[in-house]
Amino acid sequence: MKRLLFFFFLFFFFFLRQGSGEGQGQILQRFPEKDWEDNPFPQGIELFCQPSGWQLCPERNPPTFFVAVLTDINSERHYCACLTFWEPVESTQEVVFNEDTTEQEEEADEGGQARLSSTAPAQPSQLFAPKTLVLVSRLDHTDVFRNSLGLIYAVHVEGLNVCLENVIGNLLTCTVPLAGGSQRTISLGAGDRQVIQTPLVDSLPVSRCSVALLFRQLGITNVLSLFCAALTEHKVLFLSRSYQRLADACRGLLALLFPLRYSFTYVPILPAQLLEVLSTPTPFIIGVNAAFQAETQELLDVIVADLDGGTVTVPECVHIPPLPEPLQSQTHNVLSMVLDPELELADLAFPPPTTSASSLKMQDKELRAVFLRLFAQLLQGYRWCLHIVRIHPEPVIRFHKVGHSSVDCGPGCGQDAGCAPSCQS
């Protein structure tokens, strides 16, 4: 089975609301121009293109790239890749940072006389507005997203001798297998060649290096706490100044939960305009820019993981049950051997020759293997319990409530019908 790799190519630009320093996105171009039957246009996508808000800048910032995740009404995820660059604001679009300062410059006193304010901010000579190229796909191929948007950006900005319409047409008609482990080479018609590696199984999450990065940022103890918090349906909030790190952290935590599937709210990058979602009573895994950390401090039942600072804050009213022993200690020791293999050799008087450390991708696989074995140990005997229940639908042990009341079990029994079988008559 094949599926279209890309569904939409969107072009957003920035315009400023009058009397405010905040703006909103507007669609300049959209491909395809009409909705497809099975894939309606994602409403509100402009909020995810600039999660911190559309704002003018006094200088040209370097281009940025990140991938947000949108979930539709059918609980299917759409991957929204955004490449943002800055262009000078045209003379007809120049807007001051705060139009209200014009009214503040003239303040009427009690006698009706007007005076000028000497503290009015000066307007920069040149302002730059963000412009975003967006790809929306139901398949998760971050590297292909980055390369394709980079190619479109080069054609648009550097004026390459390539027809942009042909590039976008090839992009929209590209199909790849959903799974199977095969490789597919595609070209957008600009002398490029991109290799797409499909996963072996459609349901198997692709973590790349996200799990290894999560352990590097937070450490073993904190990641195990977040793992148990997600298993026990607690609210988990990630904070970072990097949108891509937020997306990778949420991806890594979901990969650790495999083979279980997380069915609650999952928003790796939450726009600032939707922060009220954090007050929902249902569990969630959400990422928020660290600039809005003050707005999250009032949340009393949310576990906050600061990726930049490497800390996890658990509120006093929240209790995270740890893994049962000895699994907790065993898992911690094995994770230490993967992340720091020289720890076991640090105290040896004659240590063996050190071997080269695993690459980040290989370390990611090793960490995920530890958690797969952990789930195998946790669920050991689960199928046998199902076997017993299905063969013996009736209760195996029954308590004789009437007979129990006529037997004196001694002090402390309490005449409970559910006491030990030795209390039965």
TrEMBL record:
UDENN domain location: 7-425
Signal as UniProt keyword: yes
Sorted UniProt keywords: Guanine-nucleotide releasing factor, Signal
Residues spanning the signal sequence: 1-21
InterPro entries: cDENN_dom, DENN_C, DENN_Domain_GEFs, Tripartite_DENN, uDENN_dom
Composition bias, Acidic residues: 100-110
Pfam families xrefs: DENN, uDENN
Keyword Membrane: no
Matching Gene3D superfamilies: 3.30.450.200, 3.40.50.11500
Region (Disordered): 99-121
GO biological process, one term: regulation of Rab protein signal transduction
GO molecular function: guanyl-nucleotide exchange factor activity
GO cellular component, one term: cytoplasmic vesicle
Protein name: UDENN domain-containing protein
Source organism: Peromyscus maniculatus bairdii (Prairie deer mouse)
